[in-house]
Design a protein that fits this description.
52% helix; single chain; 7-stranded mixed β-sheet; alpha/beta; 13 helices
Length: 320
């Protein structure tokens, strides 16, 4: 709870109005008693790493440091992929990875990159996460290298990202042979800056959703007369896959938006203002609870095709 929220809560619950600075100092003092000092939190990551590797052999946990001008060794970035997440992805998930990052709160204004995927029931499946100070090319390349080390080489793999220049370079250098997909919602937000009108809203979305090449051409031919420059703009600024008709059938995933990243951000939102070692431990606990819950669900499910897949098949057959 932040100082502003705490001030309101004290006013509502106890009827006392305390100056903001006093409340802020009190919350900082309480936070240090609960979680320790922020500067010590980065040192505690090494203990977290040792404990994870001891309790879950096969997990990939990496910490990278830099040496400043004064010769002091400082924290730079962190990567974590639990053994259960790696095995679950390789043995039970589709070869599809959504990659994005979210900004952290509180004293360290860093970012949390995450690699996410889908299980057989189309549920969010966390694969890996980490920390770095900013979304630079070097940081993204390091994160993607750790991810490749965790999952190993794969014959078929799709990676979906937003329009992030540093991430683009990282995927090109670390995963040069993957099917590279781009979030269509972000593409449309960029398109609205240059092209406006009903013709784009009514026809560009159906272009992306169409499964067959002739349906893709049917809707795209309605867009080109409004502005022939659209094709050139897409080829220059959005050369990656964003239409279902272009996706490989081997991936078995037709998502055109990077919604997995938004779901992850909402899922870990309440942990984003914790010290980094507490954040890692809180996410670890949350993932363990998630996997235990899904294990119970899987035991209770009948053998055969999953219920969610049957529901989708029935819904599709009714539309036909």
């Amino acid at each position: 709870m932040g100082a502003t929220e705490m001030k309101k809560e004290l006013k509502f619950k106890y009827g006392i109005d305390i100056p903001y600075q006093t409340v802020y100092n009190g919350t900082r003092r309480a936070s240090e008693k609960l979680f320790g000092k922020w500067n010590d939190s980065f040192d505690w990551l090494y203990r977290i790493k040792a404990e994870i590797e001891l309790r879950s052999p096969g997990s990939v946990v990496e910490i990278d440091t830099i040496t400043d001008d004064e010769g002091k060794v400082r924290f730079s970035r962190f990567f974590c992929a639990f053994k259960a997440s790696i095995d679950g992805f390789l043995n039970g998930c589709r070869p599809y990875i959504s990659v994005d990052s979210t900004a952290l709160n509180e004293s360290w204004n860093g970012h949390m990159p995450a690699a996410l995927t889908l299980d057989g029931h189309n549920w969010l499946f966390p694969l890996a996460f980490g920390f770095f100070d900013s979304e630079t090319k070097d940081n993204w390349v390091w994160f993607m290298k750790q991810l490749r080390k965790a999952i190993g080489p794969m014959e078929h793999l799709a990676i979906c990202t937003d329009a992030c220049k540093g991430l683009e370079s990282a995927v090109k250098s670390v995963f040069p042979d993957v099917e590279w997909r781009e979030c269509f919602r972000h593409l449309m937000e960029n398109m609205k800056r240059y092209y406006t009108g009903d013709v784009y809203g009514k026809n560009v979305w159906p272009v992306a959703r169409a499964y067959s090449p002739h349906k893709f051409k049917y809707f795209f031919d309605k867009v080109l007369p409004a502005s022939p420059e659209v094709q050139k703009w897409l080829d220059e600024h959005h050369p990656f896959l964003w239409a279902r008709s272009k996706f490989s059938a081997d991936i078995k995933c037709d998502y055109i938006n990077n919604n997995l990243a938004e779901s992850w951000n909402a899922w870990i939102k309440e942990h984003k203002d914790l010290p980094v070692h507490c954040m890692v431990d809180a996410i670890r606990e949350q993932i363990m609870i998630l996997f235990a819950k899904r294990r119970k669900i899987s035991i209770a499910l009948p053998p055969g095709i999953l219920p969610d897949v049957i529901y989708q098949l029935n819904a599709t057959s009714r539309r036909v």
